[in-house]
Q: What sequence folds into this?
């Protein structure tokens, strides 16, 4: 796998069939402590979405009597329901901490590096599995850089490490938060929508299970099932695939985030025998346009870039919240 985003679908990678060795599970560069928690936010665990505002859920009064209630409630309702009442709230993008991350990321990011940084997002978050509740946006990619599907990502990690060192000197930030914000900045830098994400992700202390990223050779039916297991609809699959517009796989300018991906999919240039046009896209890209359900969204995004931007923004936020364990006081 090359270092550009477009050598693989954002969530479509060759899966390593061999188990990584213990040495491969170690970070390959001198990163700050992997188990370090971000202090930017305090929200619930294992939620795909930051908690709603206080007015949207039940209130649990915690005082002398409240403590008694917490002790006795397990006898009446499941513990998960009790914890749902004890929600804390994600740090908002307007905070000085969020602006600090954006500022430092912009210092090290360029349009030429944007595709690799965005690819980090998909390869870190894309391991999420709803069935066994593993993977997700947890910074575990730092431990997985020797896997074949992550070839080339070490360079992107080193780019962000320069910014992370500066941020950590002021206030610690997790790799999960760092990558989520950096991916959003990469998109905006290349002309895409402005995307704001919540902070407070806890980092994993080791690699995610192998074999969780879909293969690039999957057909449309298998792609839809794979994304469904990760909590994404067909529409979100097609929207997230638009990230393939960045990089050097032939979908327009490699440094422009636009809807060229969908326009070129409709042209099917790879169907022409011979020449460089046959090299455009991956089998997984080609499969999308042959599926009626996917094709409906491809046509919509090809016709209206604003709709694509809005749907991509929403899907991106959902992606970077996948499987997250949120920092909790």
A:
């Amino acid at each position: 796998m090359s270092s550009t985003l477009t050598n693989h679908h954002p969530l479509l990678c060759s899966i390593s069939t061999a188990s990584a060795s213990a040495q491969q599970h170690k970070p390959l560069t001198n990163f700050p402590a992997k188990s370090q928690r971000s202090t930017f936010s305090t929200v619930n665990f294992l939620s795909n979405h930051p908690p709603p505002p206080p007015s949207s859920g039940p209130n649990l009064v915690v005082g002398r009597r409240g403590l008694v209630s917490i002790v006795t409630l397990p006898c009446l309702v499941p513990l998960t329901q009790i914890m749902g009442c004890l929600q804390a709230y994600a740090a908002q993008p307007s905070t000085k901490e969020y602006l600090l991350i954006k500022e430092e990321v912009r210092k090290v990011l360029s349009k030429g590096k944007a595709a690799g940084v965005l690819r980090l997002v998909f390869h870190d978050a894309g391991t999420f599995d709803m069935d066994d509740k593993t993977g997700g946006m947890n910074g575990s990619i730092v431990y997985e850089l020797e896997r074949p599907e992550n070839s080339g990502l070490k360079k992107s990690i080193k780019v962000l490490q320069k910014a992370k060192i500066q941020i950590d000197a002021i206030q610690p930030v997790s790799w999960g938060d760092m990558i989520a914000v950096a991916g959003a900045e990469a998109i905006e830098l290349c002309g895409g929508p402005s995307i704001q994400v919540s902070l407070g992700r806890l980092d994993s202390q080791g690699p995610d299970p192998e074999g969780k990223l879909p293969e690039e050779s999957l057909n449309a039916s298998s792609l839809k099932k794979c994304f469904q297991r990760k909590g994404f609809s067909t529409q979100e699959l097609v929207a997230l695939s638009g990230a393939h517009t960045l990089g050097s796989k032939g979908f327009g300018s490699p440094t422009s985030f636009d809807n060229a991906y969908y326009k070129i999919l409709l042209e099917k240039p790879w169907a022409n025998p011979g020449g460089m046009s046959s090299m455009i896209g991956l089998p997984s890209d080609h499969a999308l346009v042959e599926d009626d359900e996917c094709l409906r969204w491809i046509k919509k995004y090809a016709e209206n870039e604003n709709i694509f931007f809005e749907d991509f923004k929403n899907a991106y936020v959902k992606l970077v919240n996948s499987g997250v364990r949120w920092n909790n006081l």
Residues 1-26, 28-37, 39-47, 51-89 have pLDDT under 50 and may be disordered. The two ends are 40 Å apart (CA to CA).
